[in-house]
Amino acid sequence: MPDPQREESHGFSRVEDVNVVPDRDEESNEDGESDNQQPRLAELREVETVYGPAEDSRLLAEAVLEHVSAEDAVLDVGTGSGYVGVRLQSEAGVFVVGSDLNPDACRQAADSGLRVVRADMFEPFRDGSFDVVCCNPPYLPTPPEREWDDPMERALSGGPDGRAVVDPFLAGVGRVLKPDGEGFLLISTLTGPDEVRETATAHGLETSVVAEESHPFERLLVLRLQQRG
Ligand SMILES: C[S@@+](CC[C@H](N)C(=O)[O-])C[C@H]1O[C@@H](n2cnc3c(N)ncnc32)[C@H](O)[C@@H]1O
Questions:
Q1: Which domains does the chain show, CATH number per domain?
Q2: Ligand 1 center–CA 51 separation, angstroms
Q3: Which of 36, 141, 186, 205 has its CA 20 to 30 A from that of 173?
Q4: Ligand 1 atom nearest 76 alpha carbon
């Protein structure tokens, strides 16, 4: 049951304040056309529109579970299906909000029992609101000619260097974290871990690797981010 006082303290309790989970009919009509009469490409292609939980989702969830306590308020940025947030909510009893740009992801996460705000990363949230912010971002380097104009592009493509979403995450996470709060960011060896750590340092964040796992073409890492002094 959502706690209105806790939601108010994070800055998003009034539905008119933010772009909350859209109605199921808001995005397209029965013919798969959006309000501006453009067909939704993902629907026409009959491809999945929400990232299904995978090894990266599990690694992030388990790493964060080791570092949260029941009193914590957590933001799961790019929540997708809501898998990470729901695990934190149900296994650690923490207060979790998920955010995602993709309306289909917002609906799926909300259907899984998560509080969800449709948002570009941290945009609607107040300064210093969260003890923990976690994110499994789109991190795969993707040449522009391989990009797709559909929600899965948003879920997977990290742009040419893999850091198109990682870099703004590092630039903005300190604003919404409490002074002693922590961030947890899933990256891959394909994302350029040295460059990611350099960017984090430039934004006043100390980094440490708290979980790692090897896969055939990459090694997944969970970086813990702590604000310096
Ligand atoms: C790799 S998926 C991870 C989904 C889920 N957290 C998981 O671990 O299974 C990345 C998610 O980030 C979302 N996303 C991409 N850019 C975003 C942004 N700027 N703000 C919010 N969500 C974003 C995508 O829509 C997608 O759902």
A1: 47-227 (3.40.50.150)
A2: 8
A3: 141
A4: 6
* Protein residue closest via CA to atom 16 of ligand 1: 154
Residues with CB under 6 A from ligand 1: 51, 53, 57, 60, 77-81, 83-84, 99-102, 105, 120-121, 136-138, 154-155, 165
Q: 219 and 185 in contact (C-beta within 8 Å)? A: no
What pLDDT, on the 0 to 100 scale, is given for residue 9? 57
By the 10 Å C-beta count (0-12 exposed, 13-18 middle, 19+ buried), 44 is classed as exposed
| pLDDT tens string 147-167 | 666 677 777 788 888 899 999
Judge contact between 225 and 183, C-beta under 8 A: yes
- Angle ∠(37,43,44) on CA atoms, nearest 5: 80
d(CA 18, CA 97): 14
